[in-house]
Amino acid sequence: MSRRSFVTGMFAALGSAVPVAAGAATGKPHRGTVLRAKPAQVSIGPRTVTTWTYDGRLPGPRIEATAGGLVRAKLVNGLPADTTVHWHGIRLDARMDGAPGYTQKAVPPGGTFDYVFTVPDPGTYFYHSHVGMQNDRGLYGTLIVADPHEPLGYDEEFTVVLDDWVDGVGGTPDEALRRLNASTAHDDTLRSTLLGGVVGELRHPYHLINGRAAETPEVFVSKPGRLVRFRVINAAADTAFRVALGGHRMAVTHTDGFPCAPVTVDTFLIGMGERYDFLVRLGDGAFPLVAEAEGKRARAFAIVSTSHRAPAPRSDVRLRELTQRMLRYADLRSRQADLLPRPSRSVTVTLGMRPSGNEWTLNDRLAADPMRLRVERGETIRIVLDNQSPMWHPMHLHGHTFQVRTSSGPQGPRKDTVNILPRERLNIDVHADNPGEWMFHCHNLYHQEQGMMGTLGYG
Ligand code: C2O
Ligand code: CU
Q1: What is the rounded distance in angstroms from the CA atom of residue 104 to the CA atom of residue 82?
Q2: Is the CB–ligand 1 distance for residue 275 below 6 Å?
Q3: Phi/psi of residue 184, each to 5°?
Q4: Is 303 helix (H, G, I), strand (E, B) or coil?
Q5: Ligand 1 center from residue 98 Cα (angstroms)
Q6: Residue 398 Cβ < 6 Å to ligand 1
Q7: How far is Cα 329 from Cα 332, in angstroms, rounded to an integer?
């Protein structure tokens, strides 16, 4: 079977074949955005909270660009602290990566910085502050890069940004981190409390979809029979989510912006920093879009509504869950497979926890004296991520998309963030084609701030 007929076959299983869109380039040039980082009051539904935002909004402004085009964004720092913007997942010029102390000096209060870069690859991305725990206060927004030759002929799309909400309600994440660090090694109460998102007087943490708590959910309004693309982004600091859409199976089409051979599932787990896109042909009714906070007995929730009919309850179903093994990279336009060159060597990166439980390491090093992987420009290197800690870690590499190597075949998915389960080993192949000193870290912000930050670099 050709790749094309495989892809079309998968979509036929959705109810009807996906029409392939005409190849005309329709993207308009990105005119430029001003991102004002500033304290603001925002409503998350049941409560109004004081926190830090871009432009007083949560999520921050949506930035749309077209693959091959430029993004221009002026950061204006109206915060009482230094800040930067990191463009998560974008294979950009290192000077625009927003990594404080590595690629730029953090922008002081009152300062500005012009981010100007080309976005080479279409897909679902986001941006966030890369200073301390600022991302967790709400300093994040979406960056959607359109494909001028979009191969999927869907009718409409929705973006779903997941977040866990601790800061601005019962304390600040920085304070939470300080308390966590001050706790003794076996004070598990505080840790589990904190990891459950419960700080200070806040008893019931909020989990948000597009800045809205489950009590007053976001409603995505569409029509029955429409083929809809959902772009799911996990911007949370400390929560993985299990996502499902009631009454529908989802055809997962993209992993961290890059296409994969569509896999039809009932649910998938999305770690911090990961993105998944899926297609569904919507039924007639109102359907719950549920994101279960993994291990926390809490959920984020939205509604997809195509009519005023009540949703059909559906609870007794065995869900088919996505695993990395089901995924393989596939160019949906049936162009060449775009294989990475074979890796010339491999290095192991060990993910570890120090006995204190408050320090997380990469090859036994903490961020203060970080692991620095050296590679040659142009080489492909296999990185063996060996998780010897009792916690899962969504590891993110800046400036690149790597290929996950699963045992099921030659091709795993393309990703820039991959979740490694406790005691698991996972191989990723990285092609060193974008020189710079790139952060390589766990996207659990607590782990990141507690040492789990290194670099991969070449000139
Ligand atoms: Cu989204 Cu270094 O991070
Ligand atoms: Cu981690």
Answers
A1: 12
A2: no
A3: -80, 165
A4: strand
A5: 9
A6: yes
A7: 9
For the CA of 99, the nearest atom of ligand 1: 2
pLDDT of residue 171: 47
Query: Does any ligand 1 atom lie closer than 6 A to the CB of residue 231?
Result: no
Closest to 262 (Cα-Cα) out of 1, 8, 2:
8
Ligand 1 atom with the shortest distance to the CA of 417: 1
Tell me which residues of the chain have a pLDDT lower than 70: 1-30, 166-204, 308-321, 323-324, 331-339, 407-410
Please indicate whether residue 400, judged by its CB atom, sits closer than 6 Å to ligand 1.
no
Check residue 308 and give its pLDDT.
67
DSSP character string of 89-136? T----GGGS--BTTTBPPBPTT-EEEEEEE--S-EEEEEE--STTHHH
Instruction: Tell whether ligand 1 has an atom less than 6 A from the beta carbon of residue 396.
Output: yes
Q: Whose CA is nearest to atom 1 of ligand 1?
A: 88
The predicted model scores a pTM of 0.86
CB of residue 439 inside a 6 A radius of ligand 1: yes
Output the CA 394–ligand 2 centroid distance in Å. 6
| pLDDT value at residue 15 | 34
Cβ–ligand 1 distance for 88 under 6 Å, the answer yes
Q: What pLDDT is stored for residue 79 in this prediction?
A: 94
3-state SS assignment for residue 189:
helix
Ligand with an atom nearest the CA of residue 235: 1
pLDDT of residue 357: 82
pLDDT in tens, 391-437: 999 999 999 999 998 765 667 899 999 999 999 999 999 999 999 99
What domains can you pick out in the chain, each with its CATH number? 31-150 (2.60.40.420), 157-326 (2.60.40.420), 345-458 (2.60.40.420)
212 forms bridges with which residues in the sheet?
Answer: 209
Instruction: Specify the residue with its C-alpha closest to ligand 1, atom 3.
Output: 88
Q: Tell me, what amino acid is at 107?
A: V
Question: ipTM of this model?
Answer: 0.98
How far is the centre of ligand 1, averaged over its atoms, from the C-alpha of 367 (Å)?
14
Ligand 1 close to Cβ of residue 254 (< 6 A): no
pLDDT in tens, 242-281: 999 988 999 999 999 999 989 999 999 999 999 999 999 9
Q: Give residue 14's pLDDT.
A: 38
Quick check: CB of 441 below 6 Å from ligand 1? Answer: yes
| Long-range contacts of the stretch 409-412 (C-beta < 8 A, 24+) | 409/328, 411/328, 411/329, 411/330, 411/337, 411/339, 412/324, 412/327, 412/328, 412/329
Q: Which ligand is nearest to the CA of 97?
A: 1
Greatest Cα pair distance in the chain: 61
Amino acid identity for residue 413 in this structure: P
